[in-house]
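Field reference: sequence -> structure
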Amino acid sequence: MRRVYLDHSATTPVDPRVVEAMLPYLTEIYGNASSVHHFGQEARAAVDRARHEVAALIGARPNETVFLSGGTEANNLAIRGIAEAAEQHGRHIITSQIEHSAVRGVCDALEKRGWEVTRLPVYDDGIVRVEDVIEALRDDTVLVTVMLANNEIGTIQPVAEIGRLVRERRAAGHRHLWLHTDAVQAAGRIPVGVEALGCDLLSLSAHKLYAPKGVGALYVRRGVRLVTQNVGGHQERERRAGTESVASIVAFGVAAELARTELDARAEHVRRLRDRFERGVAQSIEDVVFNGDAARRLPHLSNISFRYIEGEGLLINLDLQGIAVSTGSACSSGSLEPSPVIRALGRNDELARGSIRFSFGKDNTEEDVDYMLEVLPRAVENLRRLSPLYQRAQAERAACETQPVVAGN
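Structure field:
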């Protein structure tokens, strides 16, 4: 059976060049990076090199880059750390309705502890409005956290405009207002620069960049004070205690370098595949809805709702034919609730439950797309044939087409 992986927003395969770079740190170079002897300093040097590469990917200084276990921990440290450090100045946080669960869950937890959270709408295009941020800002607002690009529909948010707004407010005397952005889906797929964005904190995850799972980074602008969440050691400038996973950090550094140098070629490749796929879907399948803004989105991602069927059923049908896709965020897999991101666009439960995320990668081919376009229409047709809603809709359409036309006087 042909195998086609179209779930790169969930995770990416590890690049062979990344594997080659990390292997020595799983075998002969095994020191603890906090140790002062030769073995430890060898590991420390590797961590420092990786830190420079990860920082370069986002235009940051190496000493502003904190290594940790992944995007979820980065979001936790950023949001909890700011909220707890600044709570004497205010307990209000602004976020959006389409954040990843790693942001949404932290905000929900803080809300239970007494913080107020404003969740901004995104309208039918899946994009936050800066004017809504302006309206939501208060004297006791300490954090705005809006993702750079959505993980389900790929829409790119106006973080740079929000960043300018936050800097203006801070210059006007609101000194304890900070901006965090979850750039886990964006980094390595579109240009990301912390100065251009004007953000104070930015989250990254290695396994979206063809590196292993279990390592990520948080950019923390100089002068930003956080309350550390992992305590018990002095690692990472006392931002995050715990022995560094040297091999994983080395892999992250190499993946970040490759993502930076190959960004344009990768983006053009996946955009071409995605557009070929979407044209094919529009021509071969009726009753589909493309979710999110068509232009302001990541180049590799397509989210489509198929009327009259459940997304889970389509996912399983495609998997049986060798194609891997997703019904949304992998972190929410198994949830019986319709996607909150699709619902935030104003879609009904039927469209939210019938949504599928297709996310392309650098190693996908046109043959993969053509195979997908061969299998997908049949899978949709087979599932709709079993759907009472689809049968009723077809009957109503047939009735309308056979109604006699009455000529006017």
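Note: The longest strand covers residues 301-306.
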